[in-house]
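Good morning,

Attaching, inline, the backbone tokens for the sequence recovery test we're adding to the shared suite. The designed sequence is right after.
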């Protein structure tokens, strides 16, 4: 079967770190075009544009696009792509608002194209294994600790601090994408303390309380972008039957009752493109709104607390993780 022809819109950090090398290494895809506001290009792409609309109209053989821009502009671009007859892969968060995503889902259905919300953290092997281990169990406690250094992972990214940029929920939504995947019961946000730097429009940290709607269940998420030194992406779970699970390294490592069950390298973007190939081949969409809904709910019920201003004084080189 001929490879799927794909274009990338927005050649920022994630497009360069993950999408380009993953597409290059996957024979089921052929990168045909890129669109970059700054005019960046790549040798693998036959066509380069600065206006994505010209790419959509100018390359009729293009089957799909991966939208790797900030979330604030994703809906407009995804709409234009679907209306131009292209299937769409959405980087996370899939849109700026829930209603934008609902609109895209309906539109994809109407035009008969694939829409795919990617949640990269869900593709790490420990996440699958944790979901299997928790199936049919009752969870008693779940604690998310997602603490990283924003200067290291998001150097110079102004959009992330603007309204609609998600702030700490840009990485926090990855944790929620694991929680919604592994929890055997639905979860709800019951409280959130959102810590906004005095000079920013998005939170730098959040303390979130969740619930399953059942009494006696203790679920929390502690998210913070001010952590220097070792970085922490962990989820600890205890079941009513007494089993203890610890997911660490963003879902790459899983311990159950102190025994290491999985300890593997990230499989995120390989997993995303494998799934996208399946969806395109089968002509189906996969729209998972659950992690996005939790973030929206945290903003909806959250208390806004002001903390000290954030100044991006220094950056640390060597970013390799998909944040
Ligand atoms: P980034 O480095 O800031 O790249 C975003 C790119 O989108 C820009 O460089 C720009 O590229 C393009 N763009 C289009 N419209 C824009 C606008 N109005 N404002 C700013 N840029 C615009 O951000 P990123 O880290 O790649 O993140 C992009 C998306 O991927 C986010 O939703 C993020 O949550 C998600 N993501 C990021 C990571 C990560 O590790 N960084 C991991 C997983 C997912 P051109 O000039 O080339 O058009």
């Amino acid at each position: 079967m001929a490879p799927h022809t794909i274009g990338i819109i927005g050649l920022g950090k994630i497009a360069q770190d993950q999408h380009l090398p993953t597409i290059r290494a996957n024979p089921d895809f052929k990168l045909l075009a890129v669109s970059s506001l700054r005019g960046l290009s790549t040798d693998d792409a036959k066509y380069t544009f600065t206006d994505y609309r010209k790419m959509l109209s100018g390359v009729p053989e293009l089957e799909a696009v991966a939208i790797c821009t900030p979330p604030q502009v994703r809906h407009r671009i995804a709409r234009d792509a679907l209306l131009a007859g292209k299937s769409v892969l959405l980087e996370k968060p899939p849109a700026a608002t829930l209603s934008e995503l609902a609109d895209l889902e309906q539109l994809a259905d109407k035009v008969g194209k694939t829409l795919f919300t990617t949640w990269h953290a869900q593709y790490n092997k420990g996440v699958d294994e944790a979901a299997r281990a928790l199936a049919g169990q009752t969870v008693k406690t779940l604690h998310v600790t997602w603490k990283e250094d924003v200067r290291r992972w998001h150097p110079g990214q102004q959009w992330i601090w603007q309204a609609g940029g998600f702030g700490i929920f840009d990485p926090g939504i990855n944790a929620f994408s694991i929680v919604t995947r592994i929890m055997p019961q639905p979860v709800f946000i019951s409280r959130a303390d959102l810590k906004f730097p005095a000079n920013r429009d998005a939170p730098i940290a959040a303390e979130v309380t969740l619930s399953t709607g059942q009494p006696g269940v203790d679920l929390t998420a502690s998210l913070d972008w001010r952590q220097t030194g070792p970085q922490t992406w962990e989820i600890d779970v205890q079941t009513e039957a007494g089993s203890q699970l610890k997911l660490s390294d963003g879902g790459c490592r899983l311990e159950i009752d102190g025994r290491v069950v999985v300890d593997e390298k990230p499989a995120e973007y390989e997993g995303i493109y494998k799934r996208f190939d399946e969806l395109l081949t089968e002509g189906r969409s996969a729209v998972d709104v659950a992690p996005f809904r939790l973030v929206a709910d945290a903003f909806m019920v959250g208390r806004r607390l002001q903390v000290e201003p954030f100044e991006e004084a220094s950056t640390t080189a060597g970013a390799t993780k998909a944040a």
